[in-house]
Amino acid sequence: MKRKKLLKTVALLAIFFAGATTAEAGFFGHRHEKCENESRFFGMRIIKQLDLSEEQENKVANIIIKYRDQQKNADDKMLAARENLMTVMDADLFNEVDLRQAHQDASAVKEDMLVLKRKVFSEINTVLEPEQLEELREMKAKRREKMRERCDNKDKKSRMDKWLEKHGGEKS
After folding, report:
1. Is 58 in contact with 42 (CB distance < 8 Å)?
2. Are 139 and 44 a contacting pair, CB within 8 Å?
3. Which of 78, 83, 135, 140 could join 23 in a cystine, given CB atoms 3.0 to 4.6 angstroms apart?
4. What is the pLDDT of residues 14-41, one digit of tens each?
5. How far apart are CA 1 and CA 159, in angstroms?
6. What is the 3-state secondary structure (H, E, C) of the chain?
C-alpha cells in the first residue's frame, strides 16, 4: 500500500512542470543544456517528503497544473536570458554596458520566477496540515543551516587561495 502511494506520488510529480527551474538551478553556475523532455518543479523534493494524503496530492497537483503554463513560460525566459548572459560573457571584446544589461535582464526574469514560486507555495501551504507545515519549516531550516555551514567554513582554504599560494609571485 505504501509502495503504491509512493509510485502514485512519483507519477504525479513527473507529470507536472515540464520545464521548471533547470535554469534557476544553474543561473550563474554550470552551463548545462536543458533537455527538451526534462521535467522539474522547484521544491518538489521537499513536497515528496511530507507524506501527503491522496486528497492532498490531488489538491497540490491541481495547484501546480494551474501554474504550469506560467512556469513553463518563466523557464523559457530564464533559459533565453541565461544564454544571452553567457553569450555576452563569452564575447571576445569585453563590453561592460552589455554585460550589466544582460545581467539585469536575467535578474529580472529570476525575480519573476521567485515570485511565481512563492505564489505556488503559498497555495500549496493551504493544503498542508499543521504538522506538515512544521515539518516543512524544519526541512527548510536544515537546508539553510547546511548552506551556512558550507559558506562559513573560514578555516578551509578555497581552491582559489591554494592556487594563488602555489602560483602567486608575491606572498602576502
Report:
1. no
2. no
3. 78
4. 343 333 333 333 444 433 444 444 445 6
5. 49
6. CHHHHHHHHHHHHHHCCCCCCHHHHCCCCCCCCCCCCCCCCCCHHHHHCCCCCHHHHHHHHHHHHHHHHHHHHHHHHHHHHHHHHHHHHCCCCCCHHHHHHHHHHHHHHHHHHHHHHHHHHHHHHCCCCHHHHHHHHHHHHHHHHHHHHHHHCCCCCCHHHHHHHHHCCCCC
Tell whether the torsion through CA atoms of 130, 133, 139 and 144 is positive or negative.
negative
Nearby residues of 46 by Cβ (< 8 Å), 6 or more positions away: 136, 139, 140
**Judging by beta carbons within 10 Å of its beta carbon (0-12, 13-18, 19+), is residue 94 exposed, middle or buried?**
exposed
pTM over the 0.70 mark:
no
Report the residue count for the chain: 172
The 10s digit of each residue's pLDDT in 104-158 is 999 999 999 999 999 999 999 999 999 999 998 999 899 899 888 877 776 677 7
